[in-house]
Amino acid sequence: MSSRLISALVRLLRPASRLTPTSSATERVMPGDVRGLRLTYRPEADGDPDAGEIVWTWVPYDEADGRGKDRPVLVIGQHGRDRLYALRLTSKPHDRDGEHLALGPGEWDTAGRPSWVDLGHLYSVPRAAMRREGAALDRPRFDRVAAALKARYGWSK
């Protein structure tokens, strides 16, 4: 059995209390302060979070008061050795507000609702805090997100 498969199985079998990160584990990052983020697309259906995948993790509320909720995020790139950059998703409609990009429905939402990615809410999330692999975003939709981020923040691709 491969080490990646074993790692994925161990992560799935951990008790739920160990899977729920504290507010200090997932950090909000101001996208405009990040320079030279290399947007990557490397999804692998192996149970580990990869750029281009929508996974679930605990995300703090905007009030930064220690509260938050489990929600889907789109992984967009590496942040150091053990962390990834991710953007939060929402199923609340945000047509033409300039902060969100419509993704449409996908396998990550079992109810089949359309989703929007929030271009203004970037998080640095420990790899170990991401779980419940939702789905790989298809390449054309990922490229649309990457193009929007590059135009908005000047990030490389």
From TrEMBL:
GO molecular function, one term: DNA binding
InterPro entries for this protein: PemK-like (IPR003477), Plasmid_toxin/cell-grow_inhib (IPR011067)
Keyword terms of this UniProt record: Toxin-antitoxin system
Domain of life (superkingdom): Bacteria
Pfam families membership: PemK_toxin
Family affiliation: Belongs to the PemK/MazF family.
Official protein name in the record: PemK-like protein
